[in-house]
Amino acid sequence: MTDADRLEIAAQAIDLRKTYGKGAAEVRALDGVSLDLYAGQFTAIMGPSGSGKSTLMHCLAALDKPTTGEVIVGGRKLGKLRDRRLTALRRDKIGFVFQAFNLVPTLTAQENILLPLSLARKKPDPGWFDQVIDTVDLRPRLKHKPSELSGGQQQRVACARALVSKPDIVFADEPTGNLDSTSAAQVLDFLRRSVDDLGQTIVMVSHDPVAASYCDRVVFLADGRIVDELAKPSREEILGHMSDLQSRAMGLAPIGEGV
Amino acid sequence: MLRLTLRNLAAHKVRLLMSTLAIVLGVAFLAGVLTFSHGLDRTFSGIINGSTPDGQVRPTNSATATEAAARPGGGSAAMLRPEAIERLRTLPEVARADGVVQGAGLYVLDTDDKLVSSSGAPTLAFNHTGSPNLLGEPMLELHEGRWADTQKEIVLDEGTAEKAGYRVGDSVTLIAPQGETKRRVTLTGIAAFNGGGTAGAQLLVFSTAGAQNLFTEGKDVYSAVSLTAADGVSQKELAAAANTVLPKGFEAVTGDKVVAESEDAIGDFLDVISVFLIVFAVIAVIVGAFIIVNTFSILIAQRSRQLALLRALGASRRQITTSVLFEALVMALVAATIGVLAGWGLAHGLAAAFRQAGLEIASDVLVLTPRTIWISYAVGVCVTLAAALLPSRRAAKVPPVAAMREDTQPPVRSAVLRTSVGLVLLAVGLVLAAMPRIGIPEISLPGGFDVPTSPALWVGVGAGVSILSVAWISAFLGRPVLAALRTVSGTVFGMTGKLAGQNAMRDPRRTGATASALMIGLALVSLIGVLAASMNASITDVVEEQFKPDLVVQSPTFTPFPTSIGDEMETVEGVATVSRSQIAQAVVGKLDLQNPKKNEAAFLFGVDEHLSKIYDLEVLEGSDDVKPGQVLVTDEVAKEHKWRLGDRIDLTVRSGRQLHPQISGIIAESQVTGEITVRIEDLVAAKVPREDASLSIVLARGADPAVVHDRLDKLVEDRPVVAVQDKDEFAESIKGQVNQLLYMIYGLLALAIVIAVIGIVNTLGLSVIERTREIGLLRAIGLSRGQLRRMITLESVTIAVLGAVLGLALGVLFGVLLRDALRDDLTSLWVPLDQLAVFLGIAVVVGVLAALLPAIRAGREDVLKAIATE
User: Domain ABC3 transporter permease C-terminal, which positions (chain B) (predicted)?
Assistant: First the structure.
């Protein structure tokens, strides 16, 4: 962990807990998660469904509020912020890529990419814009509407949009979940390059070991807790860990809950 | 399937509530109008039946007794002597014969000596005889006090007493235009027609001696007789028997005949009110139908996956259609029920508004008749089902495979056919409306129907066809407007504005249909606006052209007044000339007593030597100078009677005397003179009682008009029957009546606009639900709540402005065409740009208001939930 000491923290979760429902019906989606996310890294959060990985991402991305605990993004505590500030924070400091339905159908690719900036009434940095467009390889498609783009192209537009405002951190929620393997590889390749070449910070939620193998760091979540993490893992290592988690979840879940 | 339908209804309560509201309002208006019309009808027929005796004796040349009483100059010339009534009483068929004395031109002054306004309904002054009506009941009900016994006593109706501020026992001031001006009598009682109410008429009931004192110069004569049949005698036998003993010039008619004649006379007036109101109800229902079509279309588009799933599970197309229609039926029944009840309330509201205007409708006749309920339900259900039919068929066309598709966007439907048909219909409508300009063909249609020649009718039909076809293809016609609006809002409001503009264009048909509801309302409003402005401009023109004296004195109710007023005015300092004019009833040719229907009534306009010097009459032949023994006629009348310059014509005035003047000039029709203009001296010679209808005053050279105006105002201060007006006041007093009507129409059209607002709220609300994910995405990437609300508001304003632009364009176009068709009366055209700008402003406000609820709702949406929604 000597590496980590030198790295700057882009976002931080401190003892996050998130519960839904009350009494017997209470569900703990997050059960005391503390996590540092480092700038300039491509981090994957993995776990079986119901492990709380999406909830964690939503809390980190200022889309959801934890029941207790604190989230710090870009050095700012989110807990105290009102909706207006949260909106501005999402617009200026955070980028998003969702699994599907990422683009506004009435706007062209270029307008979609520039949307966070135009909502803030800001002008894009032309050099940065060109760099992003070239990285996602979308220049000939900028005037097209989303319906005229393939699924992979749409996701790349979404990635470009997430990056264009130079956010502190980009959150990607299963960005390749709806894509065929070739398109998925293109998108992941682009995310990787934006970390390596453009110095971006990306956090990706996924349950796909192939996707996670593009990352610098993989954090494993089960039953609302961080159970393990790997640095620069291979696909095989991840697969092994996943099946371990799966069997532990199936076999030991009742015991785990009692602890 | 049934359970599913009901579940669907329950699942979308708010949306359904909104579309139900559109039907509720339409049905409520219809039911309200029907109930009100029925009440109006009942009120009048109650009064007519309740105040007509078994038989009536009246002068032969009068249609009805009411008409005789309403004539200027008061009563009819022919009077019955008491002996004639005695002869009637001796007949075995007659149980009672009561002499009636009626008069007109009598007014009540209130406690401040101001005229009690009668607002159009007649003032009925007569004696109380106690004779029963044809049902054997008393004609009048005494509510308070007692009947008048002496000459110095009076009984009034409650409305008049209340307005004037009199109570039983008070001294009441009456004003009579002829003879002495004021008279004080004591109020002894309050009465109403049998069955209650007076429908706004003022009742002035005297003792027989009192009425004779006022109307017959104290002579013991009668203007009519109420006959009561003896037991077992029919109305016909009664009338036949009475006719055998009547003097020449009088006839006896059955009560039933009098009722029929009165109902005929009043029926036209009632029909006008009913048709007028029903037109607005129909507009409200049509606008409502647009909203229902829209709501169902959207609901079905949203539910297409669910419908596809049902189809995949084995539901037939027919079952889907039936399910949607059944949903509509349940909605319609609920809405019609609420609508009928609301309509009953609305009828009471209308009655209150009419009461304010002086037309009293008793509230106990404002009942929901089975006919009203039946019609309201039928219209509500039929319109809703018809509106839901297209969407329901579209629902059935959802392919089962759509259940499996990610993308639930409805396929873009080809609009080529629809647009082409719509454009053709629009062209037909425009051609129809332009026919009066092109020239209406005079051809006979098979079946003996002639092509209607009324230009206004052609324009009206053309306007109706055009407006509906524009509504139908509003998606196509609205596109350039929407594109322009998008550019504007994008420029002004940045990305939020652009997104709003894009959203409005996303489903042009939906936007168009929503805007159409507003379009119809605004098209009518601006059409009426153009007509009213043109009418006001025409009035200004006519007054400018024809109002030549400095001041005019006349009665606001156009009743004659005593000549003493003119005499006094002549002595006022600064007045140079007072020109008198008088109106007298006459019959063209010789009076035919045997065939009263052959007598052609006409008004004679009596003038003095000043008239032709003050006014510039347009002389077509001869001169405008009329000397005693001469007559001026308009070209219309000359043509009708084949009169030529120099001819001598026969005129018979009410006294029975004849005039035999020579035509000295043929003039164009004007507001200054009547059709037949003679010298007052000739009328006096024919024993027409002298009175003035209007005075035209020319000021002395150098006199200050304002000062003289003030002096004359002081002079007539205690004579509320007349008013002194200069040119502007005169024009304003006429325009005031036009504007009053205008505001009433605006008020009724406001309802159509309210329904349109509901339509926009509905569409926006549904769009917000439809775009939950997109809104979530926008919120996630940085759209603030304020920006979101602004976006929805701008979309709403875009829809509203589209409706306004289309509506105003159509309204102005057809307003101009209709004005053109009516150019004989509306001589000048005026497009009220300021008013149109206000209407556009109202549309923007409407848009902002309509967006309130959907915007708040969208803003409250949890960002996460919005993204997570599947």
Answer: 278-400, 748-860
pLDDT at site B74: 40
**B631, B664 contact by CB (below 8 A):** yes
Tokens of B741: 């009507």
Instruction: For chain B, give every domain's residue range.
Output: 1-53+256-407, 54-255, 419-548+726-870, 551-725
Asked if B362 contacts B196 with a C-beta cutoff of 8 angstroms, the reply is yes
**pLDDT tens digit sequence for B613-646:** 888 888 888 888 888 999 999 988 888 888 888 8
Tell me whether 0.85 is exceeded by the ipTM: no
Q: How far is CA B538 from CA B604, B696, B828, in A?
A: 26, 22, 5
d(CA B644, CA B664): 9
CATH class of B551-725: mainly beta
How many other CB atoms sit within 10 Å of the CB of residue A88?
A: 15
Phi-psi bin for B160: left (phi > 0), alpha (psi -120 to 50), beta? alpha
Give, for B651, the enclosing helix (H) or strand (E): strand B651-653
CA angle B423, B428, B431 (to 5 degrees): 125
What's the gap between Cα B247 and its chain centre? 43
Q: Specify the pTM.
A: 0.75
pLDDT score at B196? 62
A91 contacts in chain B (CB < 8 Å):
781-783
CB within 8 Å: A83 and B777: no
Residues B776/B865, Cβ–Cβ less than 8 Å: yes
Residue B580 touches partner A, C-beta closer than 8 Å: no
Calculate how close chain A gets to B22, using CA atoms only, in Å: 30
Q: How far apart are CA B785 and CA B851, in angstroms?
A: 14
Q: How far is A87 from chain B (nearest CA, A)?
A: 5
CB contact under 8 A, B787 and A119: yes
Which residue's entry shows tokens 């009418």? B535
Please tell me the CATH superfamily of domain A2-258, with its number: P-loop containing nucleotide triphosphate hydrolases (3.40.50.300)
A120–B499 C-beta distance less than 8 A: no
Contact B778 A104 (CB under 8 A): yes
pLDDT confidence of residue B402: 66
Task: Check A88 against B784: CB less than 8 A apart.
Answer: yes
Measured CA to CA in angstroms, residue A259 lies from A154, A185, B297 at distances of: 44, 40, 55
Chain B residues with CB-CB distance to A61 below 8 A? 780
Which residue does chain A place closest to B784, by CA atoms? A87
Cα–Cα–Cα angle for B307, B310, B313, nearest 5°?
Answer: 155
Please indicate whether, in this complex, the C-beta atoms of A119 and B774 are within 8 angstroms of each other: no
What's the Cα-to-Cα distance from B54 to each of B132, B235, B251, B614, rounded to whole Å? 8, 6, 14, 53
Confidence of residue B10 (pLDDT cuts 50, 70, 90): low
User: Is the minimum CB–CB distance between B506 and chain A shorter than 8 Å?
Assistant: yes
Q: Is B780 left (phi over 0), alpha (psi -120 to 50) or beta?
A: alpha
Q: Where are the domains of chain A?
A: 2-258
